[in-house]
Amino acid sequence: MFRTQILKTAPKELSHYTSRLNPGIGRAHKLLLDRGQGSYLYDASGKKYLDLACGIGVTNLGHCHPRLVKVVQNQAAKLWHGQLCHGVHTAMADLIEEMQTILPEQLNSLMFSSTGAEAVETALKIARSSTGRQNVVVMQGGFHGRTNACLSLTTSKYVYAQTTRPLMPGVVVAPPPYATQLHIDNDTDVEVMSKRCLAVLEDLIHQASHPSEVAMLLVEPVLGEGGYLPLPAVYLRGLRQVCDKYGILLTFDEVQTGFMRTGSFFAFNQFQVMPDILIFAKGIANGLPLAGVATRQEIANKCPVGTHGGTYAGNALACASAAEVIRVMKEEKIFDNVAERNVQFMDALKNFAREPNSPITEIRGRGLMIGIQFDAAAGFASAVVNAAVERGLVLLNTSKYEVLRLIPPLNITKEETDEALQKLFDSIRAVSKDFKVTSNGGSVKPCCPTACYGGNQPCRWLRV
């Protein structure tokens, strides 16, 4: 009876439930969601929404993929929870075997946890235990979670740590090559900008710390909350060189970029740059809580027994789902679809951005992790998000700048992509009428000085 009453409750009555939740929870929408299927969400009234948020990059294979449903149902009838202190359950053993097929052989030590933030803290403990050092270098605009230690490493927005200070000391913040954040022209050469940022990084390592005190350098290959900014390959290779020079562990936070989101199982696969520590979460189990850290065995061996664990670490249901996610991504050719839909999105966005009154100044991203930056008054991107949900499209904005992010299911179809783009463009046009926007004059700046997406020219940000 109670569930029936909920299903009949209109979204306008959602306040009855949200009032019982902590008011510190941030919300982009006011939806009472009931179910999901494929690329769509449905609220309690039955309204259908095309989901281009995927729970912030979690449901990479869409909602309720039939193979995942079957695997989880079978596991639920077999074992829900098997504690690590007792050994290894067969669902985790299966996941370990699958992970070995997508990880470099050097990253041969795994630690599973429940959330991305927990995995980041695990990586921090591993780095400190291995090096005997305490400090960490992070990127300006990076996001690594909301626990106390992770907030100390997060610089994308001040509000995340507001009222919770003091935070963990020993954190050095370095600027990534992001023209908007550096307050330089968007046409600045990628390699020139990267080299300058690397020089500043070396200065900071010696001024705000000392190389002998830095345990790890933590970076997202594509900044998420920082603006969906793909870091150039030349910059990431430079980070590897700096870390090698000073004995610092290069740590990639691939919580959002991992599991085919950027067009490969992990974004670092595209850069020819090997991390010492890899953090993953979100898309690994397609919605069930699972995260983890991969590192080299000689690094992991420095961790004393008892320093790692967790009640729900490597939950059996989540592990079963994750192992099947990897198999589905291989067998259903998700890589090919990501490449095709990337071209479809980018070509359509490029054409729309060329319209005389378009407020779009930059289109950037890899795979199906796409950012759209606007030259408009504060609140423009949020207004587009609100206009889109009224049209049945779920979107999210990101960063302190006016940036919209597109995070569709990786198996989204051509027809669904066309539908999403039409609703997106209708929303941008509608909001532009009410906001002060700066027209780009029909000329949009891509993430590189010369547009390459959708064509045969290799991306300069990826060039190796």
TrEMBL record:
Keywords: Aminotransferase, Pyridoxal phosphate, Transferase. The keyword RNA-binding does not apply. InterPro entries: Aminotrans_3, Class-III_PLP-dep_AT, PyrdxlP-dep_Trfase, PyrdxlP-dep_Trfase_major, PyrdxlP-dep_Trfase_small. The keyword Transferase applies. GO terms for molecular function: identical protein binding; pyridoxal phosphate binding; transaminase activity. Pfam families: Aminotran_3. Its cofactor is pyridoxal 5'-phosphate. Belongs to the class-III pyridoxal-phosphate-dependent aminotransferase family. This is 4-aminobutyrate aminotransferase, putative. The lineage of its organism: Eukaryota, Discoba, Euglenozoa, Kinetoplastea, Metakinetoplastina.
